[in-house]
UniProtKB/TrEMBL annotation:
<keyword id="KW-0411">Iron-sulfur</keyword>
<keyword id="KW-0408">Iron</keyword>
<keyword id="KW-0472">Membrane</keyword>
<keyword id="KW-0809">Transit peptide</keyword>
<dbReference type="GO" id="GO:0010277">
    <property type="term" value="F:chlorophyllide a oxygenase activity"/>
</dbReference>
<keyword id="KW-0001">2Fe-2S</keyword>
<feature type="domain" description="Rieske">
    <location>
        <begin position="93"/>
        <end position="199"/>
    </location>
</feature>
<dbReference type="InterPro" id="IPR050584">
    <property type="entry name" value="Cholesterol_7-desaturase"/>
</dbReference>
<dbReference type="GO" id="GO:0051537">
    <property type="term" value="F:2 iron, 2 sulfur cluster binding"/>
</dbReference>
<dbReference type="GO" id="GO:0046872">
    <property type="term" value="F:metal ion binding"/>
</dbReference>
<keyword id="KW-0150">Chloroplast</keyword>
<feature type="transmembrane region" description="Helical">
    <location>
        <begin position="594"/>
        <end position="611"/>
    </location>
</feature>
<keyword id="KW-0812">Transmembrane</keyword>
<dbReference type="InterPro" id="IPR013626">
    <property type="entry name" value="PaO"/>
</dbReference>
<protein>
    <recommendedName>
        <fullName>Rieske domain-containing protein</fullName>
    </recommendedName>
</protein>
<dbReference type="InterPro" id="IPR017941">
    <property type="entry name" value="Rieske_2Fe-2S"/>
</dbReference>
<keyword id="KW-1133">Transmembrane helix</keyword>
Length: 641
């Protein structure tokens, strides 16, 4: 507990002042790291810079084509390409794990832009109101021999200790505190001028129930960066996060982002109608507005449309004209409503990774539904999906979290394999464009500027128009997708560690020749969700225990029968206690054959249900499920061609 107490109030007061000075919302709970470093800054100390992550200024090698021309129609207020140019992925906070999923006082690995970090929730041993929690994070690499710190432990004092040779590090500063094999530690500190024995601490905080880390440097950079984006409803009175979900996907985060903000696929990929409320049509067009925030460091785009069944109602009226078997949309919003009562369906993308979808009453502004998605950019070809339903639900109405997880896992399975098939083409195309670009420039411009692409590409800014060249936007709802696509095209080359991994894919042809990962790998719920969700893991363990208990209990009557077989069923005075017990049990059971049958049936049903539930947490969505789902489409969307 000692590590939490010293000068905490002073630090927090100082940090509060810091928040005001830098306009970081004070409700964000930044770890003591922030406070400590704010004090260091005041005192003139230098915090250790994360040299490999320092944001570098963009070098324009190509004047990017103006993507603002795309879908630049009257009701789309587009911003020019220059708003993207200032975007720096490293100058943003990223949510990496739900705070409730982070075990106390144990290191956990998270990944961001293909770099591993170790995060931990340090909890004091006190219970009750005095109990204190804070999150800390470091690069997941021990400076001694590069073993992962996440494989180690937290000491009783709250330091990260490497499991290999026991070096310990201050989790707030990264400073090496102990090298067990060295007696005179002072001499090491004095001789280690370059501080090579220190690890790299990373700013961390809890905000809206998630752990956020800042990969772009120390506190100084973190305070200058835009604060973590908020979902307004989460902080409003009466609202709360009703369910929080996490799942790691072998799908590139850019592709998952586009999938989530696309309501047009709900009818087909998920066979549901309510996505349609966010779709646009000629009768309820989509309005798209962009905003450059935080002095050009942040960018957001919002689409709004009337929450009506846009695709279904118009098309079905037409299709139902000459047919007997009429299909009617059946969502509650398809009923006749007064114009003023129709909620506004809003989708907001807060770059780089938050999508909020909500339905709000146009008159009162009250939210009837809100869901937020944070797509953590774990790396090229992967993502961590985190979502939260936000609602005005009384606290006593708490549905076990795993129930929501089972439902949403089934839902997510429906289109994730589709994304895997799409990803091959999109990443292949991105790779081809990067290689083409490098080839074009290798002899002239790059040479002139004396830049060697094969050595370091991280600071180069190039436009990779993969979406502009490869996607075909046709739907009236795709104005939003087109703008987000333009943002991605313009900024992908600045995504940390991306250019090299995309380059390594070897171009479109090479990617096409490689085999697609299997459905069971893409949809492997156990590694993607169950293992990282304590609530689901507990259900799995309970299911296994219930099944084992059922087997043992069901076998007991048989065991008694076998043991009693051949023994006299007369209990004599000299019989052993065990013998008496067996004979008595056997006699008891022999008189209750119906009871035993009932017991067996009950155990079999319980075991069957536990087995069924357990299976929900492993790979489930086979081709049979897909075919079954495809057969549901005609009940929503009439085949006419
Ligand atoms: S690698 Fe960490 S202590 Fe040796
Ligand atoms: Fe779960």
């Amino acid at each position: 507990f000692a590590f939490l107490v010293p000068n905490l109030t002073t630090y927090l007061n100082a940090f509060q002042n810091g928040c005001e000075a830098f306009q970081l919302p004070s409700r964000c709970r930044v770890s003591n790291f922030a406070a400590v470093h704010y004090m260091e800054k005041k005192a003139g100390f230098r915090t250790k810079p994360h040299s490999s992550f320092l944001p570098s200024s963009a070098v324009d090698l190509e004047v990017a084509a103006s993507v603002s021309e795309m879908h630049d129609e009257s009701n789309t207020k587009t911003s020019s390409i220059s708003t993207f140019e200032k975007f720096d992925y490293l100058s943003h906070w990223y949510p990496v794990i739900w705070a409730r999923d982070l075990p106390s006082n144990r290191p956990t690995q998270v990944t961001l832009f293909d770099v591993n970090y170790v995060v931990a929730k340090r909890v004091s041993e006190d219970s009750g109101p005095k109990k204190q929690e804070e999150v800390v994070a470091m690069l997941d690499r021990c400076p001694h021999r590069s073993a992962a710190l996440s494989e180690g432990r937290l000491t009783a004092q709250g330091s990260f200790q490497c499991a290999y040779h026991g070096w310990s590090f201050d989790a707030l500063t990264g400073r090496c505190l102990d090298i067990p094999q060295v007696e005179n530690k002072r001499s090491i500190r004095i001789s280690d001028k370059k501080k090579r024995i220190d690890g790299t601490a990373v700013p961390a905080m809890v905000h809206q129930e998630m752990v956020w880390i800042f990969p772009g440097g120390g506190l100084e950079q973190a305070l200058k960066a835009p604060p973590p984006p908020s979902v307004p409803e989460i902080d409003e009175d009466g609202y709360r996060i009703v369910s929080s979900v996490v799942r790691d996907f072998p799908i590139d985060w850019t592709i998952l982002l586009e999938n989530i903000m696309d309501p047009d696929h709900g009818l087909f990929a998920h066979q549901v109608e309510y996505f349609d409320l966010y779709s646009a049509s000629s009768e309820s067009p989509q309005d798209v507005r962009e905003e450059t925030r935080h002095g050009g460091k942040g960018w957001s785009v919002t689409s709004t449309t009337k929450a009506v069944n846009s695709i279904l109602e118009g098309s079905l009226q037409e299709k139902n004209k000459n047919t007997e078997s009429e299909i009617k949309p059946n969502t509650f919003l398809s009923k006749e409503r007064k114009e003023d009562d129709i909620p506004v369906a809003t989708t907001t993308f807060d770059a780089p990774n938050l999508i909020t979808m909500a339905r709000r009453n146009p008159g009162t502004g009250k939210t009837s539904f809100a869901i937020a998605f944070w797509i953590c950019p774990s790396g090229t070809g992967k993502s961590r999906f985190m979502s939260a339903n936000v609602g005005k639900v009384p606290n006593f109405l708490k549905i076990p979290r795993w129930i929501g997880h089972v439902a949403i896992m089934n839902f997510l399975d429906q289109d994730t394999f589709l994304l895997a098939t799409q990803q091959k083409h999109v990443l292949g195309k991105e790779s081809e464009l990067v290689l083409q670009y490098q080839k074009l420039n290798s002899q002239n411009e790059i040479k002139e500027r004396n830049i060697n692409l094969s050595e370091d590409t991280s600071h180069l800014k190039i436009n990779i128009p993969v979406r502009r060249k490869f996607y075909v936007y046709q739907s009236p709802t795709e104005r939003l997708s087109a703008r987000v696509g333009a943002f991605l095209d313009a900024t992908l080359s600045l995504v940390p560690n991306r250019l090299k991994s995309i380059q390594n894919l070897g171009g479109y042809e090479q990617v096409m020749q490689s085999s697609l990962i299997s459905r069971s790998q893409v949809l492997d719920r156990f590694t993607q969700h169950t293992q990282i969700c304590p609530d689901s893991m507990e259900v799995v363990k309970n299911c296994i225990q219930i099944q084992s208990a059922c087997k043992v209990l069901a076998a007991l009557p048989l065991l008694v029968k076998v043991l009693a077989f051949g023994n006299s069923n007369m209990v004599t005075a000299t019989a052993s206690l065990l013998h008496r017990c067996i004979i008595n049990c056997n006699g008891f059971l022999a008189k209750r054959p119906v009871g035993i049958m009932g017991f067996w049936i009950g155990a079999a049903i319980l075991s069957f249900l536990a087995n069924k539930l357990e299976k929900e947490f492993y790979y489930k969505y086979t081709n049979d499920y897909r075919e079954n789902d495809m057969d549901k489409i005609p009940s929503l969307w009439k085949d006419t061609v």
